[in-house]
Amino acid sequence: MADVTNTAAPTMANAGKPIARYEARQKVTGGKIYGDDLAVPGKPAHGWLVTSAIAKGTITAIDDSAAKAVPGVLMIMTHENRPPLQPMKTFSTGGIGLTSQEPLGGPEIAHDGQIVALIVAETFEAAREAGRKLDISYNEGRPATTFGSPGVVRKTTKEVVGRGGGPTLGDVEAALAGSTHVVEAEYSTPVQHHNTIEMFTTTAFWEGDRLTLHEPSQFVWGAKVGLAKQLGIDPDNVHYVSPFVGGAFGAKAAIGHRTPLVALAAKQLGRPVKLVPTRDQCFTIAGYRQETKSKVRLGCDAEGRLTGYSHELDEFTSLLDPYHNGGLENSAAMYAFKAVGGDMFLSRGDRNVPVFMRSPPEVPVIYALESAMNELAEKAGMDPVAFRKLNDTRVNPVNGAPYTSRSLNECFDEAAASFGWSRRTPAPRSMRDGDWLIGWGCSMATYPTSMTPATARVTLNANGGAKVEVAAHDVGTGAYTIIGQTVGERLGIDPRRIIVQCGDSDLPPGPVSGGSVTTASVTSAVAKACDQLLAKMSASGPMSDEDRRAAFDRIGSNALIEYAEWTPAGMDPKQAKTLYEGGVPFAGGAGEDRTMFAFGAEMVEVRINERTREIRVPRMTGAFAAGHIMNPRTAHSQYLGGMIWGMGSALLEATEMDRLRGRYVNDNIAEYLVATNADIPQVDIIMVPEQDDEINVLGVKGIGELANVGTAAAITDAVYHATGVRIRDLPVRIEQLLV
Ligand code: MOS
After folding, report:
1. Tens of pLDDT along 622-674?
2. How far, in Å, from the CA of 513 to the mean position of ligand 1?
3. How far apart are CA 183 and CA 175, in angstroms?
């Protein structure tokens, strides 16, 4: 492991050491760690995707004569000649597919940018030239594009997928009718794309019957088993390698069309095939965050105590597969509501299938709830922080299940003290600095603590060297570091002497790196394997070098290897075996008998120029509590990145659509805006100590998807405080403020 312990890195109670990242040196020196960097046996051929120029219709003819004539072209695979494939189930229905649509399955076009051909050539340039010369004729239909487009039908989620009516408690209509103050408002969030810097690359090669994939993945075991089924081969013959991932955020868990196609091409050509798609192709060959609308009604009594909470959630999705997020069961657990109601709806169109994107349900749903909380606090004449503290709860009001720990009030106290919240004057437009209108806003952040089964193998040598192996994934979060740290702390050995291996399907299976489950699940399995090692050495805790050597002498061995399987409390231990079948059962969040969430409080300052309406965010403060913090340095980065992401999501990020043709317009990172250096203000992160002895072995909660939740609600409330204008449709745009 890396050997730098920066004394300036944050430290705190109930936390591990802030050691530097395991892969820090490789990352800053440009090590070959990403899928497309890895060496292949033999000279690879290069792929190029041809994607559809229309969103709906049929291919009527393909003329490949000019494409074939390009020197170096080896293969043009279309629906007319694709080798057979087995059906693929979607991630939401127990498979690994982004969509159940067959890759190159026929002439029908179901969305813009659908893969219609894979060209393989000796060089990337030849493949690209052939791709541009492939002449495809279409019969173009009129796509149903987004909310309100002709042809779009709205149904309840229950009607579409048979479940998902939303939680209910008491009589919400009566509760709202009897309230002193009620907010009724509609909030919307836009289409967003993950735009990971590492593209959706795929490299495939066959050695006899064994297929190896170098492909960025958040779930190598799921991918291995799922792809094997799709190709109709034995999963033992698929080797998925994804040691590091250059950004995922949910986009690299499910398998899209490109993967089986590249595998088939490599088989047919008998040599490695490498595919690096273009940025604009990445908007349509993978998933995205779908657009949502939330109609919220929220009431309180004369003292400010919450009464009824009703939330109608609309999500857009594809006609191919009804991917959706829901999320009302989580928002209903947030405060001491006396009555809860609402429903979830799906509208479907001729679009590629959406997929999870960082805090999939919480980003839209908590944005809406927290915005309504801010609006209701104002109506009740209360400070928004005091309003939330008054309505804190120790149990999920819907089912009475207690929180295993909940430190939201402590987070608000710490954030407020650091930010200087008490100096806020509540009236809109009451704070200014010359031409700049100043607004301060706040929000709660939350994310459910979910856990899955996990396995791990730990090898310990007499001299204190160790190796830990688990097919978990480091999507940039620091997983390698904290997995190694777990071994070091549990066994009492130097983290620099620990080798960590992840992201390879030949390793013992780990969960999908999604839902922020990795830390809670994988460190539990790793700690269990360490405890088994300690038991073999007749020890009950970290050992000194002398004691360990003595134990190995007694045992008469130089190395001990232990494998462990861990399952979350309340889950059948046999469920760990489903990992070997490519499954990943989840537990946690708003459970039947326990409620498990991490919390935070976010405060932001916006400055809006009174003349130009230019919006700046000079500073943000976030205070977070998430149980035991494995490594305050990597945790700090997760929170920092999360709040920056949240700010970008509130002010910049949106995929624009040509509503007539159903095509994404700004499908590049010049026009799809994300926060960059000059946008990034001072971000103060406070880690509030929290102990949770109940939640899992080490008492940890996932944090990767916590800090980006709530930022948008804080920013829109700050925009209102600065200007008196309520913006409820994200992202906030200057033109919305020109009123
Ligand atoms: Mo993350 S959106 O849970 O993969």
Report:
1. 999 999 999 999 999 999 999 999 999 999 999 999 999 999 999 999 999 99
2. 7
3. 13
Q: List b or e across 150-176, with b for residues whose CB sees 16 or more CB atoms inside 10 angstroms.
A: eebeeeebeebbeebebbbbbebeebb
| Cα 165 to middle of ligand 1, angstroms | 23
Atom of ligand 1 nearest to the CA of 355: 2
| Ligand 1 midpoint to CA 180 (Å) | 39
Q: Is residue 157 part of a domain?
A: no
pLDDT value of residue 165:
82
Among 96, 217, 249, say which to mutate for ligand 1: greatest number of ligand atoms within 8 Å of CB. 249
Tell which atom from ligand 1 comes closest to the C-alpha of 357: 2
DSSP state of 236: G
- CA of residue 448 to ligand 1 center, whole Å: 12
* CA-wise closest residue to 70 among 37, 46, 101: 46
Residue at which a domain ends, from 568, 584, 600: 584
In a domain, 178, yes or no: no
Which conformational region is residue 512 in: left (phi greater than 0), alpha (psi within -120 to 50 degrees), or beta?
beta
Whether the predicted pLDDT of 298 surpasses 60: yes
Q: Report the alpha-carbon distance of residue 228 to residue 280 in Å, rounded.
A: 28
Kindly state whether residues 439 and 472 are assigned to the same domain.
no
Q: For residue 600, is it within any domain?
A: yes
Residue 265 sits in the same domain as residue 126: yes
Residue 308 lies in a domain: no
- Which pLDDT belongs to residue 8? 53
User: Which CATH number goes with the domain that contains 366?
Assistant: 3.30.365.10
CATH classification of the domain holding 118: 3.90.1170.50
Q: How many domains are contained in the chain?
A: 3
Question: What is the span of the domain harbouring residue 661?
Answer: 1-31+361-448+589-739
Active site residues: 705
Residues 425 and 504 in one domain: no
The pTM assigned to this predicted structure is: 0.97
CB-based pocket (< 6 A), ligand 1: 218, 249-250, 253, 356-358, 360, 514-515, 705
Residue 123 has a pLDDT of: 98
Both 652 and 729 in one domain: the answer is yes
- Which atom of ligand 1 lies closest to the CA of 253? 4
Helix (H) or strand (E) holding 348: strand 339-349
